[in-house]
Protein 1
Amino acid sequence: MVTYVALLRAVNVAGTGKLPMSDLKAMCTDAGFLQVRTYIASGNVVFQSKASPTKVKADLEARLLAYVGKPVEVIVRTAAQMAAVLKANPFPKAAPNRTVAIFLDEPPPPDALEHAVGVKDEAMRLGTREIFVHYASGIGKSKLKIPIARRGSARNMSTIAKLADVAKNLR
């Protein structure tokens, strides 16, 4: 049995993709996932499954499409991978609520940050399948756009730490 963390893109954020977490939990249970836990209303779910990450992603995306009537991208990480993202944070002294990892399905291209626009005082680093960004002045004031990030889903370090902890302790 593998413990997974699934991150839904653009759910319950800025009025898009309304999805009650109780419905997300029910979808996961109906898919055969075990020990399902959601965390905050922005589309974070932790669970166990014998299925591969690819199958978990496909099952969840199909159920979400049927529920909301449009595609909802899902990024899947194992508990160990989520813990590794937290450990790999290149800005460990920065405020966790101002530092995010943008989760991607594939490794970001080496030149991904060269295409960023609207850079002010943000610091950026590439990860394995993430892009780390520290927003020195806060996310709300930033005009930063990283084109490849449109394919991903961002979570701040506080949320990542909580998800890693939930996944580590799932029984």
Note: The longest strand covers residues 2-8.
Protein 2
Amino acid sequence: MTKYIALLRAVNVGGTGKLPMSDLKTMCCDAGFAHVETYIASGNVVFESEAPPSRVRAELEDRLHAYTGKRVSVVVRSAPEMLAVLKANPFPKADPRYTYAIFLHEPPPSDALTHVSGQQDEEVRLGEREIFIHYPRGMGGSKLRIAVAKTGTARNMNTVAKLVDYVERRTCKPR
């Protein structure tokens, strides 16, 4: 069984996409995933499955669509892939609360940063299937726009580290 982390886009953020984590956990269990555990209410779930990542993503997106009546994008990473994201953080000395990885389905195009607008003091770097951003003054007042990031979902480095901890160092509780 492979340990996975699924990150849902636009769930329980800013009053949109309401989804109780207990319902998300039930969906995952009903999909046949094992040792399912959610982390905070923003759509993070860790579990084990024998299915390949593409099947895991499709299964979750289909169930979420049936539940919400709209498409909810899901990004899936294996435990080693999530650990690699944490280690690849190009801003290791920056406050992890203000350092984000925007998770994408595919690698960002090499010219992704040439299409950035509104950049002030933010630092931006491309990763394998992520875009890393350090917001020195926080994300709230930023006007930064990255066109390719519109389909991704962002998590700060504290959350990434906690998810790595969940799948690598803790035993997820069976449902």
Note: Residues 9 and 153 are 5 Å apart (CA to CA).
Protein 3
Amino acid sequence: MTLPASVGGDDRLRLFLGLRPPEGALDTIEEWQRTHLERMRVVPREYLHLTLAFLGHRPAHELPGIVDALRAAVAGVEGGLRLTPAGYRETRSVAMLVYDDEGGRAGLLAADVQERLERLDVYRREGRAWLPHLTVGRFRQRPGLRPEPPNMGTYVLIPSDASAYLSRLRPGGAQYEILETVALGGL
């Protein structure tokens, strides 16, 4: 793993761990965004992910242990994760696609990752249950949309890897950089 050249061991990194959707799912989601989310700032294709754990600002020297925890958790994922679009939801400032988690396997992975991060003392779980979702848009005023989720046909979202992301806050919105990618099932 290589850190961006401008980052030193004592610098604080805004980090999160997430599942990356496969390319075919991204094609469908991107087309759905163009059709349904014209009244908001859509999340670019390269930033779409399902967050497993948001760590916030952490010292850069903790990153190897964080990635090791992610690697250990995803190594136990056998047979992949199957996520099917279940609905659209708006919060105070974001639009999201919520997914059904077949067999609860993605939820088990999220819980495993979060537990490992807690043991490292780099993360504290939220009070609410983990929700498999993709943030697809951002807005200042809730648009009150009610679109159907994208029709994936027989194609469900089956992520094949998880990543550690660096998030940089910018005036135009957060920008993400993948620092390390780990294959599910240790492949």
Note: The beta strands are 12-20, 41-42, 50-59, 83-90, 94-101, 133-138, 161-168, 175-183.
Protein 4
Amino acid sequence: MTKRELINKAKEAKEFAYVPYSGFQVGAALKAKSGKVYTGCNIENSSYGATNCAERTAIFKAISEGETEFESIAVVSSANDITYPCGICRQVMAEHMKDAAIYFEDKDGNIIDSSVKEMLPFMFDNKIPNKK
């Protein structure tokens, strides 16, 4: 699957977003190393802490179906420009897809490549600093 195809899958997922409070739709498409693609959208709740982002929806869906290795994720929004993942999503990505690519689309339709390590350079991980 090409980057453009993954972006298009994220755009399809965005249309299912449940956003009665913000009106801000986000879609994500996650490609597992197995080749399977998992999509997600943001799902809001009147208790805002119960809201789930598109990226985490896709990641949790994939993990709940047995996937553990991921190649890339595409993220798009109704802003029709680059929408970066929130801090919580970045940390979930760091835990489950640290070496994966992240694709965004800018307002001109160009695909922008990034990585989890670029999005969260000082991520938590299971390594304790200075431990020998």
Note: The radius of gyration is 15 Å.
